[in-house]
């Protein structure tokens, strides 16, 4: 994979639904090589913002993507690891089927060439997935296996922006560390900008480089250290009551 030095600029992004405003005038940048944590209370609009970036819901304002040369790109590739995935677990489709059709743009039922399967095997290896996963039906994956497979999907073709929405909600403690170590090494190696939605401030402090506190609009943004010390974050996460982050 080549190194990506892309960036995304969000300006005055507003989302309205049923006469209400879900997001209002959201503006911030995410640069190559950084993991930007998007934090905020339940219902603050974090997932809605990711959906707007993915182009899945209408918004006003602008989202501009740049490549490593500072050139604007109109059709960015956005990798997305969702909070949870609802699908028919009885589908007779394997991880290999899904990865190969994702990489090659070919329908699952046409079968896969050997080279595509090798590519899928390599991709799985980069996310720490056992090659035996290739033959597993997606409906039979554990939470941790599924997160890895979803990350593999998100990484090939190489994304200009990677969105992680509570990516470890179904993963055990050891799996969480493995997942974030993986994301951190992806960031170091490939430098793609990453937006991470997380409710867990200890993960944010450990793995993110910058943070944005959202509540319909951006309340605070800056380095993780700065943002964690603000009264707004303490308020949003009830840290006043417990003594807060030191
Ligand atoms: N399709 C929809 N129609 C109407 N309102 C919606 C819709 N989707 C989300 N909302 C509302 O928008 C607000 C933001 O929701 P969103 O899921 O983006 O919040 P969030 O910050 O991701 O929350 P959580 O931390 O609980 O996942 C909520 O008040 C929600 O009820």
Automatic annotation (TrEMBL):
Pfam family, one: ABC_tran
Record-linked InterPro entries: AAA+_ATPase, ABC_transporter-like_ATP-bd, Metal_Ion_Import_ABC, P-loop_NTPase
Domain ABC transporter residue range list: 8-240
Keywords from the UniProt entry: ATP-binding, Nucleotide-binding, Transport
GO molecular function annotations of the record: ATP binding
Keyword Flavoprotein in record: no
Name of the protein this chain belongs to: Metal ABC transporter ATP-binding protein
